[in-house]
Write a structure and sequence with these properties.
Chain A: This is Quinoprotein dehydrogenase-associated SoxYZ-like carrier. Chain A: Keywords: Signal. The complex is a heterodimer of chains A (254) and B (328). Chain A is of the alpha+beta class and 254 residues long. Chain A has one domain: Immunoglobulin-like (Sandwich). Chain A has three helices and 15 strands. Chain A has a nine-stranded mixed beta sheet. Chain B has 328 residues and is α/β, with parallel strands linked by helices. Chain B has one domain: Metallo-beta-lactamase, Chain A (4-Layer Sandwich). Chain B contains nine helices and 13 strands. In chain B, strands 1-2-3-4-5-6-7 form a seven-stranded mixed beta sheet. Chain B has a five-stranded mixed beta sheet with strand order 8-9-10-11-12, covered by helices on one side. In chain B, helix 6 runs antiparallel to helix 7 and helix 7 packs across helix 9. Chain B starts with 10 loop residues before the first helix and ends with a strand. The chains are: A alpha+beta (254), B alpha/beta (328). Strand 9 of chain A pairs antiparallel with strand 13 of chain B, so a sheet runs across the interface. The structure holds zinc ion. Zinc ion binds next to loops of chain B. The site of zinc ion (ZN) has 6 residues of chain B, from loops.
Chain lengths: 254, 328
Amino acid sequence: MKVVALVFTIVFSLMAQANAADKEMVDPLNSPQWGVMHKRFLNSEPVVFDDKVKVYAPEFAEDSMNVPISFEAIELKDIKEVVVMADLNPIPLVLRYFPNELTPYLAFRIKLQQGSPVRAAVKTSDNIWHVGGTWVDAAGGGCTLPSIGTSSGDWSSTLGKVSANIWPRKNSSNRLRIRVMHPMDTGLAPGIPKFHIEKMTLSDKEGNKLARLEVYEPISENPMLSLGVDKHEYLKINGRDNNGNIVDAEVVTR
Amino acid sequence: MTILRSVTAISMALVLGLGFVGAGNLQAAGTSTTAKSNAFDYELKAVEIAKDTYLFQGKNEDFSVKNGGNVVNTGFIVTDDGVLIIDTGISRRYGEQQRAAIAKITDKPILAVYITHHHPDHFLGNQAYSDSKIYALDETAKSIKLEGEGFRSNMYRLVGDWMRGTLLTMPNEKLKAGKTTMGKHELEFFSVDGHTSSDLAIFDRTTGVLFAGDLVFNGRAPTTPHANIDKWQKTLSALKELPFKVLVPGHGSVAKDITPIEQTSDYLNWLVGVLKEGASNGMDMNEVMRTEIPERFQSMDLVKIELTRSVTHLYPALENQFLNPVND
Ligand SMILES: [Zn+2]
């Protein structure tokens, strides 16, 4: 009996591995850039395409300068890191999120130059990347022009200003929403150097670091973020941009 | 705070800098592959909807290479002195085909062209009437000047070769609100707003036909890229009071009563409620976009897509109302 059980175990584990390998081979979004993404941003580490990583986006980009993206992976435990990327963007890397103990949920908006897969890769403590994603088509509105936002004249007077709120929730994680005024220039347009928020940290009253975020150029102007912050009702937010400007704010439920 | 950004703001360059590339890049010419669109024939058929009054009804669809952008209602009135045209469609080809179709009905000259508002499906056919008087409200003309080129490149991207040769042709006459008589038709022009910052409604008191432009949709979800819903609702209440016999919406079928006005109003009211509730509960845009459509709107064409769009258009302003400044 023991031998039989052992054989079964081996067979099953082989099957499971083969299964994982199969999934790794076939990108459900069928993107020509997937191989490059895997190598560049996930260090070619083991990957499974996993429905437990939910990525939400509209099917098309109505305003290519503000495409809302969100991900959640509440069924996955022991998350080390989440990487968000848009394969076909000139700068594919959107952000890296280190939620630690916080609920793995994040919503934000990005600039999309063309139709592209948008993915979230969630690394669990067993060093496997769980990847979910969706395709966003670039052809959106005919009557909506890409929004140039507020910074075209007067960004300097509002730079680094933060608006935020926390919504306490009974049956799920409290919701933090935060908007930081910043032009988020990509550096790809002639004559405009890159100028974007790089890092943000979330801490509690005692200064314990709760989560960390690395932000890259594709994030839209005046980033608007939504996070799951468990039962916290007081949060400190610290960040800085690539020119050393500081973001500093305290948020309480109101 | 010390500001360490290393360039000074230069308006146009800065605009470009916010994106990956300039908007001009979007103007890649589309290609048409379907057999039908090779002929680039909109197959416009003038339907008589009242005495002297005709409609070219567009499809209740999104812009596509397949439909060439024929998704809008345009119309014309044949008066004793000449033809009055309401909106010119999406492209040079549309304008030319519209003009040819009108010539099959009447050999009277073109007296005036009226543009109801600055959305591309309503004025990009102007080119076919560059020898005529093209009227628009002042504010509409300003918006066309500001956004017309951007719309034009968007349309090349969305409907492709149907747009070939389409150039921006500005309205060349200022339209004033009020009453006037054209070839024995008593017309009243209403300068209103809500769907955009400047909307024109034309009421022909002689025939009882009300051309409502995109202030009224029928059986198709309203679009909101430049909408102010409060103002739109006020305008709808006013339109409802007019003693019209025939109502021509910007999109969807002609009606004989206020039903489409009430439907448009009902939908906008629901939409605002959804957006406000979402914003006040701290929801993100995708959560609001996933809102279930109530049964009474489910038969409206494009309702899910338009909800997605309206969230993009209207949510950012609303959500800011529920955030508090937390530094300085
Ligand atoms: Zn319109």
